[in-house]
Hints:
The protein is an all-alpha fold. The protein is 54% helix and 0% strand. It is built from 3 helices and no strands. The chain has helices spanning 3-13, 19-42, 56-60. The chain starts with a helix and ends in a 14-residue tail after the last helix.
Amino acid sequence: MTDQFAADLEVLQRGGMDASAAVRHAVRLIADGQRFADGQAAGNGGRRPGSVSIHTRALYAPRRPPYDGAERGV
């Protein structure tokens, strides 16, 4: 845990999520961007886009409940 990580986590928690949910949400946002880039690369000769946009609505509320491995038998 660094000071910068703690500050970033605090920003994510402003919406009312606990720390664990905030981290899962952040990872999901980045993973969604990666999936999009993978899809673009697959249809573009392996070249990934130079930038990817994140819709701001996705920043404020998870589209689906945070992943809970225990619920999914992981």
